[in-house]
Batch of 2 targets.
Target 1
Amino acid sequence: MDPNSIMTPATGAISSRFESQSSIDEARENRKKEWAEAYARIGQEPPPEEPETDYDARTLYERLQAQKELKKEEWDSKMKLSNQWRGLNADEQRFLAEKEAEKRAEQKKLEEREAEEMRAYRERLAARNTSQADDSPPIVSAVAKPAPPKKIPSKDVKKKDMKSLMKGVVVKKKPKAPAASSVDKPSTASEAAERPDSSSSKPSEPEVNNKTGTKREAPSDVTDAEDEKRQKLEEDKA
């Protein structure tokens, strides 16, 4: 068996899978003629041909990655702070100035209207008050008398009360010593008169016997009365 005859069909099958550039151009020209004849039968002109895109030899992954990077660059440039703000042009400034002037004019008109209404209201109120004053008799307002000042008790009143309390107190004189010397006795009448006062004002001290040298204590009644006086004086002071 001849080996060339065996390989001939296989070679023809493989070569039929590939197309040359001339065959591609011929097929394109035939397609154009068919479209032109079809539009001529309808009576219309054929649409303009779209420009053919150049053949991209990159893989699909490379083309998608390039598109992704391009979109990312566009997003970054859009979100930059410097690109988010821009100045106003002349038309925008003029428009904003006109709106501000209109707003101020409306505010001024509103204030003038409110002032006019307040003035008219005050005039009506004054006219009504004058008419009521002419019709009604004059009213005499009663002047309230000032309340009399309260008297503050002075310290002299306290002293008088203390004296009145002391009037009822009876102070007993201490008995004389039986063996008292002539020196202890009052020599004059004035000294005798002053002796009771001193005994009433000062607490009684124990009497000393000149002969024996022993002290005699004051009676208990005198000391009790003096204690009561001191207690009353302390209560009055408090």
Target 2
Amino acid sequence: MTFDPRTKLILSFYYSILVLFSYEPLPLVSEWVFILLLILMTGKTKESLRWFKTVAPMAVFFSAVVWWSADVNSAFIAGFKLINIASVFFAFFISTSPEDLGNALVKAGIPYPVAFVMSVSLQFVPVMARKAGNVIDAQRSRGIPIGPGLKAVRYIHVLLIPVLIQSIRLAEELAEAMESRGFGRSGRTFLNEYKMRPADWIAVFAGMLLLATFLFLQRYI
């Protein structure tokens, strides 16, 4: 069963609140295992590993900062909270196309320009990542040591300037394409019909009930 993009977004926020109000290691690990199983069910193992290689160092760094100012238990909890929240939104974005999300938000009453900006931002993140990777490869072929380590900091401008120029060109091309297609005119139609089905409403209210129950137990028991 495929849920409406709005349903998946709401459930992702529910899960994030659940994670933020979890203060014990065992619930946090259990929540992460649950999301990890959902991610593996999508069949996108390579994307999952690449994402984990990105988020894991950030979680370790965040945990180290907390450990330095608090204790080991607090560091573990803080790191797993970061991983959990990143995991649920990773699961959301690999299961929902930016176009579907933007169109569904428009149907929910969000102004089209706002939804369009959100959709395009998500679409161009991997595009800019690929462009940055191409720039890094090109500069390395010229003998510039771009990579991990403090020595590469002095050469950061040779990466940022080409990426900035390419992003400006990409924005200009996008603006021309939007203008030629009549961006902002009223009467826009959608190829797909975005409608909350009974299953979506059941999932939303069930998630709300579970979250409220968890918060009640967390507060009074």
